[in-house]
Amino acid sequence: MTADGKIWLSALPSKILVLAAAYSVAGILTLAANIPPVIVTVVWLPAGIALTATLVWGYRVWPGILLGAFAAHAAVHLDASNGGTFFMTLVVSVFIGLGAVLQSFAGAYLILRFAGFPRSLNRLRKANILLWGGPVSCLVGTAVGGTASWLAGSTPAIGLVGHWLNWWAAETLGVLTILPLASVWLAERRRISLRMRLFVILPVCLATVLTVLAFICPTAV
Rounded to whole angstroms, how far apart are CA atoms 27 and 22? Predict the structure, then answer.
């Protein structure tokens, strides 16, 4: 990246725009892939993107998370065939965005409070980093977004628990995929060689792909 590029990306509005674009693109591609035989979202990578951006750039980038989440869900679900109205879809998308913001705040706070930002492999090995950032903090987004979907009528009450569990699992896997990759990549080069980076990155990517395939094609893995 050129010096001008670094200066541009150092500005808060630029960070917000980059985050919103990354979140929305990843979200739209993920949601658009939910066609038969895929009926659920297996890995929600935007959750990991939002948490990593909050850890690296600070809490002030929250508008990027809100805009990205809103754009992703509104773009995919603004369809009368989904059974919801235009206005209700926008409202639910806003609440999902707020849930994503609160979740990234919770994850960043818990990690920084109890573990510290994982800029080295030694620190990343601490299980509490992934625990706070993944299973624990993802309860926030699940509670807000899942409840908003239920109140809007897009999720039947009989399937609410299953919907919450799937939402939580997808968000958690997204964090557990992105956070280790970002941590290894952001670590100082003198501390971690390229070979060691690949040693961490490749297994994480392989595990994510196998997880998705296990849901899409149970007989393929």
Answer: 8
Neighbours of 35 (CB within 10 A): 7
Residue 102 DSSP symbol? H
Q: Angle 185-18-29 (CA atoms, 0-180°, nearest 5)? A: 85
Of 164, 113, 108, residue with least CA distance to 141: 164
Burial bucket for residue 211 (CB in 10 Å: 0-12, 13-18, 19+): middle
Q: Which residue, among 41, 65, 53, has the nearest Cα to 108 in the 3D structure?
A: 53
Q: What is the DSSP letter of 134?
A: I
Low-confidence ranges of the chain (pLDDT < 70): 1-9, 33-40, 78-84, 117-128, 152-159, 185-221
Phi and psi, residue 34, nearest 5°: -80, 65
The answer to whether 83 and 211 have CB atoms below 8 angstroms apart is no
CA dist 61 to 20, 44, 207, 208, Å?
9, 19, 30, 27
Q: Which of 102, 177, 111 is nearest to 145 (CA)?
A: 102
Question: Which pTM value belongs to this model?
Answer: 0.78
Give the C-alpha separation, 178 to 217, whole Å. Answer: 23
Q: Which sequence spans correspond to the domains of the chain?
A: 3-216
As a residue count, the chain comes to: 221
Distance CA 182, CA 124 (A): 11
